[in-house]
Design a protein that fits this description.
This protein is an alpha+beta fold. The chain is built from seven helices and 18 strands. The protein binds 2-oxoglutaric acid (AKG) and fe (ii) ion (FE2). This is Fe2OG dioxygenase domain-containing protein.
Length: 362
Amino acid sequence: MGEVFDSDFIQSSEHRPYPTSTIQTKDIPVIDISPTNSTSISQIHSTDTAITGLIAKISDACRNWGFFQVINHGVPPEKREKVETAARKFFALPPGEKKKVRRDQLNPLGYYDSEHTKNVRDWKEIFDFTVEIPTLVPASHDPDDAEITELRNRWPDFPPDLRVACEDYATEMVKLSYKLLELIALSLGLPADRLNGFFKDHASFVRLNHYPPCPSPHLALGIGRHKDSGALTVLAQDDVGGLEVKQQLDGEWIFVKPIPDAYIVNIGDVIQVWSNDKYESVEHRVKVNSKNDRLSIPFFFNPSHYVMVKPLDELIDEQKPARYREYNFGRFYSTRRLSDFKKLNVENIQIHHFRSASASCS
Ligand SMILES: O=C(O)CCC(=O)C(=O)O
Ligand SMILES: [Fe+2]
């Protein structure tokens, strides 16, 4: 990543991560989801108190934080360990080896070391792969271009077990995400499977994030502040820590404590829109440090590319009219990705660009 500290990485002073103000007294909720391990969620009866208690916790966490950690989730720990081990081996390869699977404008999957968030370069390197074969998306962000293209994974020769470890892990993430999606649907007063149909040909992907030690952690960020644009993100982080979540009430940045074997879950833009702002997609960022590498593995649970995202009929009425006009998920996503590659001169696409006129003053 260069020997001198490159100005591309420098955050403007109001977005720098240090000094962190006060001693933190708050934490995002930790939720034990073991009641879902013995019951299929669609068979849930409202008389089951373990489940109704769980749904209440999910509802509070989504409303007040947009973020929570889950424990006793049923994902076998060895599936995660295998990806972590293989990912560390991959990122330790010489740059020339990693660049053999580098992404490009045509195929955004594989390795990349110069992502930008809000036009500032992130102090990280990544490896992306999709989960469904095939994963279909619009060929371009141009609204007049109806062409659909297939995203193809690029697997490196080394380490040879990376591919299988990643594929097995992704299968677990899909299972866990449906469970969470059903709990979230119930927490919104909807039938458990109300949202499942939007994921028939889901455009989900997994990202391996590697944050190398940074010589100037007070100037740069591992990832600048952003909101996730999909439905849900399910993230594994190692024990180093660095993820911070912006608290909705007072704007304070809250450090997310690493808990061994927990997954961090956050509401993305799509659920914000479906819920008509009952739940919010919350800003987060990643601090880096000068001593330790950090590895994190987000699974981005995205709807099918052709889904038109809009507030759900059940959640709008005269008092709460739809706050968004509908938008096409795939098109939104490919427009957003444009700015991951390079600096743009305009603000990146955001869901507030689809706010209805009647809701624009809020
Ligand atoms: O590394 C992390 O903890 C968060 C990563 C993240 O926010 C992202 O990749 O969108
Ligand atoms: Fe994120």
